Amino acid sequence: MVPSRYVKHSPATKESVFVQVLVLGDIGRSPRMQYHALSIARHGGRVDLVGYYESEPHPDLLTNPRVKIYPLAPPPDLLRSGSIPFVISGPMKVLWQVWTLTRVLGYQTPPARWLLVQNPPSIPTLAIALLVSVLRNTHLMVDWHNFGWTILAGTKGRNHPFVKISRAYECVLGQAAPTANITVTRAMKRQLERPPYNIKSPILTLHDRPASIFQPVNSLPDRRDFLEKLPETKAFAAKIMAGETKLVVSSTSWTPDEDFSLFLDALVAYAEGEDVCPLMAIITGRGPQKAFYEERIRDLQQKGRLPNIRILTAWLTIEDYAKLISCADLGVCLHMSSSGVDLPMKVVDMFGSGLPVVAYSGYESFSELVQEGVNGCGFQTAGELAVLLKRLFSPAGSNELRALREGAKKESDLRWDEEWDRVLGRVFGFVD
Asked: What pTM was computed for the model?
């Protein structure tokens, strides 16, 4: 429980609640931080949302008079191109971020009562946020989505000097910085309470829940209309509606913590089976490894390794993405969790749309989201995923798939607004 000195109780102060929400990433691809901003504004608070403006944010943020967006200047292309060795580009990028964060948080934005910061990235976010909160008498709250050093270890290895520095930095700042903390899972909360973090400030768990834009499809005509309108599906709409082709959707940031080779290998193994149902797989998102996997998909198709399987990559608006997953037959999640204690937001959105999932399950917090055989199924290898696809899309598996969809629809009843009010509404003084 957050100490009472940090809690506003008087309804008369609601309009004076002013929160800065900081994400050192693309605002439009940071749904949880956008939902924080919308929840605060919904209760009458004011929000300054700070981050990179690379893709379109949630439409309600753009029209809400209580929300003001402060875009951060992105690092120069030279620092992001990969043409400079990481030992040089990494520190230079951090210096650029220190300057832009200090300028926006310290000079361009007015002082706020709270500064809510997404972690990771922790470098230099936590240090600058701590400095600003001390100088401006602002309460600092850290929303732990994952651990930054474990993500870096995924590409550099756990023994890399920068990884060791990152881990020490995150532990020290985690102990020193926050007035309060939020975690996405109970497992993450337990880790922060133990060595090497040993965080003593209050830690609350706020599970991700779907926003109102993610809803189960209302009717078959609605599903048909959307599939016939969307460019990626219109040529296959009739077969999808007839059940002759199954629509599978996956969302990714195309980063190393989601090994899409596993999905492609599973599709090859699925296609080699007898009397399997044709599939259409749509993979949405942007990221650094997208071109690599698109080339591999083309190679598999040209070699005839994917008969009766159509794979498309797409970048959709949030409205079209929400409708797409509500119209799909199955969602696939390859999130592997660098820390073992975070959870993929994409599965939350799929459940919000009443879509059952098959998801990589090899990490501690998996069961906090997916209930095996109730709203989804877990796998850890390409072979296991191929078996699941064959089973669920076979005539004998139709009842199981229908039961999983019912479980996903029940999960969709748990919404972000209710979860946020229960956990953070009282902290910010919106709920007595």
From this structure: 0.85
